[in-house]
Amino acid sequence: MKITAYGVRPEEKLWLQQLAESAGFELVQTSAWLTADNVALAQGSCGISAFQTLPYDQAIFAQMAALQIPVLAIRNVGTDNIDLASAAHYGIQISNVPSYSPAAIAEFVVLSALELLRRVPAMTKLVAQDKLAAVQILVGRELNQQTVGVVGTGHIGLLAAKTFHNFGAKVIAFDAFPRADKPDWLSYTADLPTLLKQSQIVTLHVPGIKANDHLLNADTLKLLPQGAVVINTARGNLIDTAALYAALQSDQIGGAAIDTYEFEAQIERASEQQQPITAPYYHELAALDNVLLTPHIAYHTDVAVQNMVQGSVANILNYQSHQQLLNPVK
Ligand code: NAD
Ligand code: COI
User: Which ranges of the chain have pLDDT less than 50?
Assistant: First the structure.
């Protein structure tokens, strides 16, 4: 039995090797992202394990079908980069790891909120320039005094909400499908505009499906109270970056933490090819004192990495032995 893993990062290797030894499968691993050009590496595999934000397209699934590889088991949550219709057309089964560590992302969200409220990006720049007197006049805000609006209360949003609540913040939420098991301290708003009007911090936790394109745009950003902070650790397409940049420039909003950025595929390709980053607004945002820009690393903890690898391999092994995925994606 053979499993081929693509997009393998150094910290994943040991976990993959341990699983191969304990479950007794042949492991082929590569740091290359999965493309139609390198599917052949997986010939003879009962499944492919992969991890990337670049697209899984029709050409990949056609190759997998030709090589009779039945399963693509991604090691992450988001499936927005998968052409699911093509996968179904070629009979390829898809699985994800739906909840490898919601706490990893939730904690990163709260960290980002605190850094923006206490003006850490501005302070860090000033300290590096020996401008300590300028640091002294930067007044922060306290998280326990803020109203936090959580958009999407699934695995990650709910935990982010709970963590904010534990800091003493007032937490409100909007979800297209509110939870029946909602905790008492959390109240849902009827719609997104109502949430935005009340949120000094807004954090996004909805999937990057087409219907959610530019949920935050010039019109919806205007609804936020002046000085509000926007946090996006979900998917880049949820925010109209041009509108966000304009809102930051005009001080209509007070800060932004962007872990998932609209033109992420462009920066990934540039980074892989060691080319300069030319993606729209990337350097402009990075230069602002009230912006935290991170390269999609909110998930990146030791717990998450281990669970991602184990979850993906478990899906392939279960399909091999029972013709059933543990976490099928339809
Ligand atoms: P989930 O599926 O558990 O929850 C998503 C929630 O969003 C659901 O409750 C759904 O009803 C709600 N929803 C969908 N569209 C909505 C809309 N337009 N308005 C209101 N609610 C809406 O998802 P999750 O596992 O919590 O993941 C949340 C996001 O985080 C996803 O975009 C995922 O891809 C992303 N993610 C990012 C990282 C990272 O490292 N930055 C890591 C993992 C997941
Ligand atoms: C996810 O698990 O969906 C993430 O966003 C993590 C990522 C680096 C792909």
Answer: none
**Ligand in nearest proximity to the CA of 74:** 2
Which active-site residues does the annotation give?
235, 264, 296
What is the CB neighbour count within 10 angstroms for residue 208? Answer: 20
The Cα 116–Cα 192 span in angstroms is 23
For ligand 2, say whether the CB of 77 is within 6 Å of any of its atoms.
Answer: yes
Domains and CATH numbers, the chain: 2-100+302-322 (3.40.50.720), 102-293 (3.40.50.720)
pLDDT, residue 242, reads 98
Q: Which long-range contacts (CB under 8 A, 24 or more apart) does 273-281 make?
A: 280/241, 280/242, 281/241, 281/242, 281/244, 281/245
Counting ligand 2 atoms within 8 A of each CB, the residue from 299, 308, 309 with the most, and so the one to mutate, is 299
Q: Which atom of ligand 1 is nearest to the CA of 152?
A: 7
Alpha carbon 308 to chain centroid distance?
14
Q: Which atom of ligand 1 is closest in space to residue 207's alpha carbon?
A: 32
Substitution site in 112, 179, 189, 205 for ligand 1 pocket (most atoms within 8 Å of beta carbon) = 205
- Count of residues in the chain: 330
The pLDDT, as a whole number, for residue 269 is: 85
Which-ligand-closest: CA of 152? 1
Q: Supply the pTM of this predicted model.
A: 0.96
C-alpha span between 28 and 6 (Å, rounded): 9
pLDDT tens column, 276-291: 999 999 999 999 999 9
Answer whether 53 contacts ligand 2 (Cβ < 6 A). yes
- Per residue in 89-130, pLDDT tens? 999 999 999 999 999 999 999 999 999 999 999 999 999 999
Please report the pLDDT score of residue 268 as a whole number: 85
- State residue 174 phi and psi, 5-degree precision: -130, 135
